[in-house]
Write a structure and sequence with these properties.
374 residues, mainly alpha, Citrate Synthase, domain 1, three-stranded antiparallel sheet, 16 helices, globular, binds carboxymethyl coenzyme *A, transferase, tricarboxylic acid cycle, Citrate_synthase_bac-typ
């Protein structure tokens, strides 16, 4: 009996959404190179592409953008919930609960995936995240601005001022790069729930729950914590060697599929550098530390196919854009929600409940002994 621990190399479905070439470090959404999408596309267009399989024409694009914009506001019930949350709550727990409230408000008694639920989820994630960020900072939440794109509006609601063109582009690119990644843990978790014909919100909650972990979407937060802990470029080599000799992991390094440099990390590095040089101060210092961690990490781990992944430089990009580190995974989730939905739609078209097996290796036929005789 061969058990593939962690389902490594196990295919669970066919897909036409995302292709990863882990040996060559290439990534395609619906056949388009991630490099082209990062350079020429934006969140809305790539989201449409991932969901519906083709680049939208101008009519489809404008319709999709309009429906996203019209759905950005959150209900009074959600606002009240966000105001009631303790300030030290984990932001992923807050997001997960907020999506649960959205599901309750939509009254999802039966299995259904409506276009409106899809748009609701994608458009409201940033509003929920930004609303909680502002409350946590003891600031008034900022209402969505329909004049702004999805990425720019997210930053506007977080920072209370309109982002520069560079910031807006960096956010768009970061969200494109996080939008989908084939059969990662959170996508699989959401598929398991969807395959039982549960509702869309319940499936997305499963995705958020899986993404929260430090081995998955929580790694960006851990990476920034590590850069801060290192404190100075001169400390990097000693820090990395100590970690490795204690059998600890370098966060933002390594990947189940990529055995070379993650192309998303390559693109994010460009933006991290650009923003760090522009902003200077602490951000530049953290970027310099990250660059050195990359160099030393590859020196010791590269020969084993362990390189920076998406979470490595996204941490610097998200921080430069005004997000506190504990919120990084919620930004990841705000992009990945599109991928979760696309995979759910693809899977349920030809649904089969996901019900694998566990190989039993315990005893059988044990004699039951009453409690007072044990
Ligand atoms: N630092 C040091 N050693 C590592 C690292 C790392 N970041 N990643 C893997 N290794 C070693 C690991 O210790 C193991 O060594 P050994 O064979 O001697 O026990 C070997 O490489 C294989 O590791 P694994 O955990 O069996 O590999 P996996 O494919 O199950 O795990 C991973 C993949 C991403 C969970 C892992 O590389 C890791 O823990 N990385 C750090 C956390 C991280 O950055 N996660 C983000 C992943 S990418 C985007 C996302 O999903 O959010």
């Amino acid at each position: 009996m061969e058990i593939k621990k962690g389902l490594e190399d196990v295919y669970v479905k066919e897909t036409e959404i995302t292709y990863i070439d882990g040996e060559l470090g290439r990534l395609y959404y619906r056949g388009y190179s991630i490099y082209d999408l990062a350079e020429f596309s934006n969140f809305e267009e790539t989201s449409y592409l991932i969901l519906y399989g083709k680049l939208p024409n101008i009519f489809e694009y404008e319709n999709f953008v309009r429906s996203l914009k019209e759905s950005r506001s959150i209900s009074n019930g959600l606002r009240e919930f966000l105001k009631s949350v303790k300030k030290d709550a984990n932001p992923m727990d807050v997001l997960r609960t907020a999506v649960s409230i959205m599901g309750l408000e939509e009254n999802t008694h039966v299995y259904s995936i409506s276009d409106q639920s899809i748009v609701n989820l994608i458009s409201k994630f940033p509003t929920i995240v930004a609303y909680y960020i502002r409350l946590k900072r003891d600031l008034e939440p900022v209402e969505p601005d329909p004049e702004l794109s999805h990425a720019s509006n997210f930053l506007y609601m977080v920072n209370g001022s309109k982002p520069s063109e560079e910031e807006s582009k960096a956010m768009d690119v970061a969200m494109i790069l996080h939008m989908d990644h084939e059969m990662n843990a959170s996508t699989f978790a959401s598929l398991v729930v969807a395959s039982t014909l549960s509702d869309l919100y319940s499936s997305i909650i499963a995705g958020i729950s899986a993404l929260k972990g430090p081995l998955h979407g929580g790694a960006n937060y851990e990476a920034l914590k590590m850069f801060r802990e290192i404190g100075d470029v001169d400390n990097v080599e000693k820090y990395i060697l100590t970690k490795l000799s204690n059998k600890q992991r370098i966060m933002g390094f390594g990947h189940r599929v990529y055995k070379t440099y993650d192309p998303r990390a390559r693109i994010l590095k460009t933006y991290a550098k650009l923003l760090a040089e522009k902003k200077g101060g602490e951000i530049k210092k953290l970027y310099d530390i990250a660059e050195k961690v990359e160099e030393i990490g590859i020196k010791y781990l590269g020969s084993r196919g362990i390189y920076p992944n998406v979470d490595f430089y996204s941490s610097i990009v998200f921080y430069s854009l005004g997000f506190e580190p504990e919120f990084f995974p919620t930004v990841f989730a705000s992009a990945r929600v599109t991928g979760w939905i696309a995979h759910i739609l693809e899977y349920v078209k030809d649904n089969k409940i996901i019900r694998p097996k566990a190989y039993y290796k315990g005893e059988v036929g044990r004699k039951y002994i009453p409690l007072d005789s044990r």
